[in-house]
């Protein structure tokens, strides 16, 4: 029966076919035995109809038990296999999301450096030295699912130092994050938010960009004033927020919060213990 009707593909048909097949086989076997005893050895086994009925009932009861056991074994096999496949898919997706971060960071850093070389070569030298330290962290954290919040904050400070070399007093930052012990976040999640804010907003002496980092209700809040600039389609890699939200979806049920109020754009990253 398993060759024609699989428990995994057609459980209903498999059950009905199995029970009916047992019933038919029982009816044929009982009929053969009954008449064999009667005509060959002249032994009467009682009422043929009652014997056949009771035999089929008993057979169907036993058949249901056996088929239930068979179904549960098949279901357990399927459940284990399905869970294994889900974990493999999730692991694959998460690794893919993490791998997006490194080239994204490097591309934008080199893009910033290319502009700075023409504007101020001395600053470009400082930028390169600091960039080497920053990218070392990127390489060290690429195989990690989570990093300590304090470590990511130190990296963010180094990253902002690079940006201040480029923008000077036009970029104003405030970091008020204390009691970071036992908290973790995905690596480079904070950096990507800072990078997005710098990339998508006007930064100038007349319109400085203000960025604030602080803790609120178990979230790391990243807030900046909105002064959007026009970005040519295709110039942005469109990774940023979607990457962060997808990575968090594999780590916690708490969502990444996003709000746009009073000309401020705020993103909240859930802190993980």
TrEMBL record:
The chain crosses the membrane at residues 15-36, 48-66. GO terms for cellular component: plasma membrane. It is a multi-pass membrane protein. One of its GO terms (molecular function) is phosphorelay sensor kinase activity. Residues 93-171 form the Signal transduction histidine kinase internal region domain. It is found in: Cell membrane. Keywords: Kinase, Membrane, Transferase, Transmembrane, Transmembrane helix. Its main location: membrane. Pfam families: His_kinase. InterPro entries: ABC1_TM_sf, Bact_2-comp_sensor_kinase, Sig_transdc_His_kin_internal. It comes from the Bacteria. This is Putative two-component system sensor protein histidine kinase. It comes from Fulvivirga imtechensis AK7.
């Amino acid at each position: 029966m398993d060759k024609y009707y699989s428990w995994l593909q057609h459980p209903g048909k498999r059950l009905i076919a199995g029970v009916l097949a047992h019933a038919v086989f029982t009816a044929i076997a009982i009929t053969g035995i009954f008449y064999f005893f009667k005509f060959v050895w002249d032994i009467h086994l009682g009422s043929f109809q009652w014997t056949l009925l009771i035999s089929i009932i008993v057979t169907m009861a036993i058949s249901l038990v056996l088929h239930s056991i068979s179904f549960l074994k098949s279901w357990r096999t399927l459940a284990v296999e399905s869970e294994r496949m889900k974990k493999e898919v999730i692991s694959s997706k998460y690794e893919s999301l993490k791998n997006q971060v490194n080239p994204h960071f490097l591309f934008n850093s080199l893009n910033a450096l290319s502009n700075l070389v023409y504007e101020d070569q001395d600053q470009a030298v400082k930028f390169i030295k600091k960039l080497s330290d920053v990218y070392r962290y990127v390489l060290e954290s690429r195989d990690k699912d989570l990093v300590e919040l304090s470590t990511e904050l130190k990296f963010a400070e180094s990253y902002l130092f690079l940006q201040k070399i480029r923008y000077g007093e036009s970029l104003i930052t405030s970091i008020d994050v204390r009691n970071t012990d036992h908290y973790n976040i995905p690596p480079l999640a904070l950096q990507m938010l800072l990078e997005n804010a710098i990339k998508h907003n006007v930064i100038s002496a007349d319109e400085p960009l203000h960025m604030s980092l602080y803790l609120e209700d178990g979230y790391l809040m990243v807030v900046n004033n909105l002064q959007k600039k026009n970005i040519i389609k295709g110039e942005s890699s469109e990774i940023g927020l979607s990457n962060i939200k997808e990575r968090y979806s594999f780590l916690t049920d708490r969502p990444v919060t996003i709000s746009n109020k009073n000309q401020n754009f705020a993103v909240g990253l859930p802190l993980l213990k």
